[in-house]
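ASSEMBLY PREDICTION REQUEST
Request ID: AP-0331
Submitted by: J.K., bench scientist
Number of chains: two
Total residues: 729
Priority: normal
Notes: Please return the full assembly, not individual chains.
Input sequences:
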Amino acid sequence: MNVTDKSLCTAAAYEAFGLRLSKNQLVIALAGNPNTGKSTVFNALTGLKQHTGNWPGKTVLRAEGTFVHRNKKILLVDLPGTYSLLATSADEQVARDFLCLGRPHAVIVVADATCLERNLNLVLQVMEITPKVVVCVNLMDEAARRGIKVDTEVLSRELGVPCIPTVARDGKGLTELKDAVLDVARGVIVTSPRQVSYEPYVEQAAARIESRIRPYLPGWVNHRWVALRLLEGDMSIIKAIIDHLGNGSEQLLLQEGSAVWAR
Amino acid sequence: MGTLNSTLSSLLSSINQEISAKEQQKIRDSIVSSIYSCAEEISRKAAHHKIDRRFELDQKIDNIITSRMFGIPIMLALLGVILWLTIAGANYPSQLLANSLFWFEGQLTGFFVMVNAPDWLHGVLVLGMYRGLAWVVSVMLPPMAIFFPLFTLLEDLGYLPRVAFILDRYFKKACAHGKQALTMCMGFGCNAAGVISCRIIESPRERLIAVLTNVFVPCNGRFPTLISLSMIFIGGLGAAAYSTAVATAVVVLLILLGVGITLLISWLLSKTVLRGEPSFFTLELPPYRKPQLGRILIRSLLDRTIFVLMRAIVVAAPAGAITWILANTYIGDLSIIAHLAGWLDPFAFLLGLDGIILLAFILGLPANEIVLPIMIMSYLSAGAMLELDSLTALRTLLIDNGWTWLTALSTMLFSLLHFPCGTTLLTIYKETKSLKWTAFAALMPLGTAVIVTFAIAQLAFLLGLV
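STATUS: Completed
Returned structure:
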């Protein structure tokens, strides 16, 4: 599958989020808990090529920046720092909507090595929306100082996505991070993200709903994820999807998109 | 395609209606706990903690301090101990300060007599300004100098975030934000600071609730008033052996009442003008730290005690002079203060107060610190020139002016619940950018104070307790 074609395909989707994309540019989202050094990673990757503004219709600050890696132009979109994607605050809603509807080519989730468990909650939730995830395990030095050893190889195996150890403050591990992100975005690395297994009655109910909504949703939306949100009565994402599909430009893509993304 | 969208949206909303709200909540909880246990399992495999004894100890302490069973009793006990130490410890230095400051007043009067100064000058400067200052210092300084270092000690230990954790459950029930407990802790220092700290709450609805209810936490300016009044009056009522305990209990109950009213008003606001659901948040409990005693002393004495005292002095000195002038300028056969107080009297009596107390609260709008001094000054200047040189004499003065336990209680309740000071109101305006909400922030607590004191006073009258 040709990545460039796909990015042209979804240019309209980015526009709905107020992003203007140049030709052949890959869109990478940067997610993570607050206080994980997410901004440090963002600054280290993009340098001075940054642009700040607000998310359309929201008072949530957005930063975006560009960088070039291995001759590939990349637009990095900094999502608000959140602990989850439950969409109980404007920040979480913005992050979730972009991950689900903005369809970035890959997502970097910055995780704090000193409290991995809490950060993994967000990683697992992001991986439910999109498989194209790279985990940046930041603050490795701080963790070592506190006597915490994070084995990123085991973590990669457990999560099914690349996990890169970094010390963003000192620029350590950033090249490896960029390599992994590019490979995931272009499909060179195929991830197999670990899915959270829910209680049987939740899984069964989700499967039932999934089969009912499947014919009506475009292929690029994760049906299981939408089914789960419906189950817990979170109508905000449903509304966001319908609004998004209501955008004229996106409707044309619906058929084409389903065809390309058919599983 | 348009039909596809409408089919989709009707399908989705019909699916949504098939599941009851209770079921949705249950599924939501189950989903969250599945995610958490998955994260825990992965983290156990990938992250290895070198066993850190200090961290383990923290965990053990937290398990007790934030537990459902012991959390609240421990919190109340700590509050009680701090207030008991304050009240028990402040008595003697207060007495000492009063004695020496009023000895100096005698010297000053002697000096004015010696240089043949006119009576009005002696009145304004010595009986007005100096006396006002002397009362502020002797009544308010000792409790502050003991309470603030103790409170800062708790802050330094890392106990305050645990309070937010313990109280989170109750705020959620009130449809408010758990972080509101933290903004309330800030409010103990200063309501204006408390209002600014509400910025940590992301949701505008819950932030506004926290801003509007912050005033129900007694700030620096009102705490000494509460402590002094309970020390002088309530404590003095019972047997001497129990007086400190009784005074402490009264202040603890008042704070609890403030918290209760905060929750009640938050809930009422959530159900009426600020409708909505509580949002989730993650609170990081910082590790317990060994408090730095030297820094605590300096910080709480300089930042808080001296700051509050200076503010009180700066406002109290002119207020003392103005009060003396108001009390000694006669229109007809009554002083201006007597006119104003007499005009307020009928309403004030309904609340268990008197006109002078109500007037002091109104004149004290710029700073709550000066409410008690204005009250004392008004009684003093208006009444006979009795020699007032100790805390016992202060008690006598209040009783001579018709104070009962109900007056003291109503005054404390009114102080706890009434409108915030001018600085806080200005801050609320800056934070909300809305005159409407600022007016509401003044009138809503005032209404609460009037309702509560009215109810208690009328109940006391009805039962013949006074």
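REVIEWER COMMENTS: The CA atoms of residues 15 and 21 of chain A lie 8 Å apart.
SIGN-OFF: pending second reviewer
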